Amino acid sequence: MSNLKSNVPNSTVTRDVRMLDKETDNIYESVVVIAKRANQIASALKEELGNKLSEFATSNDNLEEVFENREQIEISKHYERLPKPTLIATQEFLENKVYFRNPTKE
């Protein structure tokens, strides 16, 4: 998940609403699809980060003995610089990379 494409903006972008409802014919339905995909991406990123940081976990629970690990800090900074899940999901939606279906329309 961390090898995201560079075409995803890293900050807020003004979007044409007509582009968002092109696939669904309903802006609200499009927003729900994007929101659900963003939740999936956020969960995957959180799990990936947790797995990488768990390598640095110590069995010592003493708060006075906190060690700064340079590699751990770099991993955290890398994930902080990634685009937000909402931006990734919106870009995927606009590029038709998100599969969705509405059972009420079928």
Characteristics:
4 helices, mainly alpha, DNA-directed RNA polymerase subunit omega, EC 2.7.7.6, 106 residues, 0% strand, elongated, RPB6/omega-like_sf, transcription, DNA-directed RNA polymerase activity, 51% helix
Task: Explain this structure.
The chain is mainly α and 106 residues long. The protein has a domain at 25-56 and 67-94. It contains 4 helices and no strands. It has helices at 17-20, 27-54, 70-81, 85-94. α2 (27-54) packs antiparallel against α3 (70-81) and α2 packs across α4 (85-94). The mean pLDDT is 83. InterPro entries: Pol_omega/Rpo6/RPB6, RPB6/omega-like_sf. Belongs to the RNA polymerase subunit omega family. This is DNA-directed RNA polymerase subunit omega. It comes from Solitalea canadensis (strain ATCC 29591 / DSM 3403 / JCM 21819 / LMG 8368 / NBRC 15130 / NCIMB 12057 / USAM 9D).
